[in-house]
Amino acid sequence: MTGITYEDFIDLDYEPADDELVCDFRVTPASDMDMESAGSRVASESSNGTWAELQVEGSITDLSATCFDIQGDRIRVAYPDALFEHGNMPQVLSCIAGNILGMKAVERIRLLDCDWPEPLTSSFPGPQYGTSVRSELLDAADRPITATVPKPKVGLSTDQHVQVAYEAWTGGIDLLKDDENLTDQSFNRYEDRLYQSLERRDEAEEETGERKSYLVNVTGTGDQMLERVQMAADAGCEFVMVDVVTAGWAAVQQVRELTEEEGLAIHAHRAMHAAFDRVPDHGVSMRALAQVARLCGVDHIHTGTADLGKLENEDTAGINEWLASDLHGLKDVLPMASGGLHPGLVPELVDRIGTNIGIQAGGGVHGHPDGTHAGAKALRQSIDAAVAGIDIEEYADTHPELRTALDKWGTETPR
Ligand SMILES: O=C(O)[C@H](O)COP(=O)(O)O
Ligand SMILES: [Mg+2]
Fold first, then answer.
1. pTM for the whole thing?
2. How does it assemble (predicted)?
3. Does residue 225's CB lie within 6 angstroms of at least one atom of ligand 1?
4. Which residue's alpha carbon is nearest to atom 8 within ligand 1?
């Protein structure tokens, strides 16, 4: 029998193997702990140790994580590939972002970043389209794609919803998006909304000569979601939207399997992410959540507005860069900027995070003094100006809808 203690989970001379998952944590140890004691407990609890000294037959170190680096309040932990069930994101997260978040040995702990090794990464499908949605499913070429969400976010009847959709599409918007809390309520049934929206979409495509699509919110329980995805596919929709955090990664993985068969892209809304990432020294960073989403296979994900909108953001530019980076052959993900955007903010947004993005505005379209159609035109005009490098004020001289939007909102960030 061998006794296994915390000390078995720390080795500052250790060099991780290529197939190990390396996680970067920020740690505030409990008041009676130093970083080494805390780091060894993090590695232990997130792999195969516990608080008590264990007596085991033979060696179990094949599955043990190792805290191999401590720099100030940062630690790095290496996890052996055999610890993980390949292709099972809930299981992976139950290791690296499980009990350790509530462990008394740390006052605070945040999973900041992961370096995903090839074997584990390749066990996930990744996105089906990624940024290629711009040309494969839409006609956006190199400009940011545009989306809008009817407001009020819930309460519009199906007839009202599809009328708003039509006005937005014909005003220059590519994607009509359901809001995160609109699914299949009595005032606006999923099935009716889906079919009627796509009928109006076809009209808008004919009128504008541009491809348009609909981010229909399929979020629900497992079977419900799959039924809704199937319905969207059968109706000729190109996208589905999933509230990935509230629905959970198992549901996202199930949806991803079906979208592979049906050729649908997945738009990931991140409602509830802030429960994990808003407190800076605790939880799971948005960067790590975005990584998980990419592995699970979403094509778009909301990553914030680089501090320009109504919501708190964490490193939008850095996360977007990661989503575009090489990841053992997995496709990239198109980052969506959303939350409090309006036309006056677009040039600065593009300046901060570039054009390889989606720009989504709800209030910033439907709050236009002349209504949704004018609001959609103003948003598209602001994007066209930003992409062409034309000053937005100058562009507004010949684009009245943009002028009205600028007169109303200026370039202020809303709250
Ligand atoms: O789901 C979203 O992204 C939000 O509803 C955006 O709405 P807003 O543009 O009005 O902030
Ligand atoms: Mg919303």
1. 0.97
2. Homodimer or homodecamer. In contrast to form I RuBisCO, the form III RuBisCO is composed solely of large subunits.
3. no
4. 362
Is 177 labelled a binding residue? yes
CB count, 10 Å around CB of 115? 13
**Statement: residue 170 has pLDDT above 80:** yes
Atom of ligand 1 nearest to the CA of 311: 11
- Position 315, amino acid: D
Measure 153 CA to ligand 2 centroid, in angstroms.
7
Tell me the per-residue pLDDT of 358-398, one tens digit each, with 9 for 90 and over.
999 999 999 999 999 999 999 999 999 999 999 999 999 99
CA 74 to CA 44: how far, in whole Å?
17
DSSP letter at 299 equals S
In the annotation, is 269 catalytic?
yes
* Catalytic-residue membership of 104: no
Q: How many helices, marked H, and strands, marked E, lie in the chain?
A: 17, 15
Q: What is the Cα–Cα distance from 46 to 26, expressed in whole angstroms?
A: 15
- 5's CB contacts (< 8 A; 6+ apart) are 53
pLDDT in tens, 109-168: 999 999 999 999 999 999 999 999 999 999 998 999 999 999 999 999 999 999 999 999
Q: Cα(307) to centroid of ligand 2, in Å?
A: 17
Q: Looking at the CA of 241, which ligand is closest?
A: 1
Q: Is the ipTM of this complex over 0.95?
A: yes
Paired strand residues for 337: 359
Preceding omega of 400 cis (within 30 degrees of 0): no
Which amino acid type is present at position 208?
T
Q: Is the CB of 172 under 6 A from ligand 1?
A: no
Predicted confidence (pLDDT) per residue in 329-349, tens digit: 999 999 999 999 999 999 999
Catalytic residue selected from 267, 269, 300, 399:
269
Specify whether the CB–CB gap between 138 and 213 falls below 8 A. Answer: yes
Q: Is 104 assigned to a binding site?
A: no
What is the Å distance from ligand 1's center to 363 Cα? 7
All domains of the chain in start order, with CATH? 2-121 (3.30.70.150), 130-409 (3.20.20.110)
Q: What does pLDDT average to over the chain? A: 96
Binding residue per annotation — 360? yes
Q: How far is CA 139 from CA 170, 172, 198, in A?
A: 14, 11, 17
- Taking CA atoms, 44 is separated from 25, 55, 59, 65, 299, in Å, by 14, 15, 15, 7, 35
Q: How many CB atoms lie within 10 A of CB 407?
A: 11
- Quick check: 1 pLDDT over 60? no
Residue where the block lists tokens 């969400």: 149
- From the CA of 414, give the closest atom in ligand 1: 11
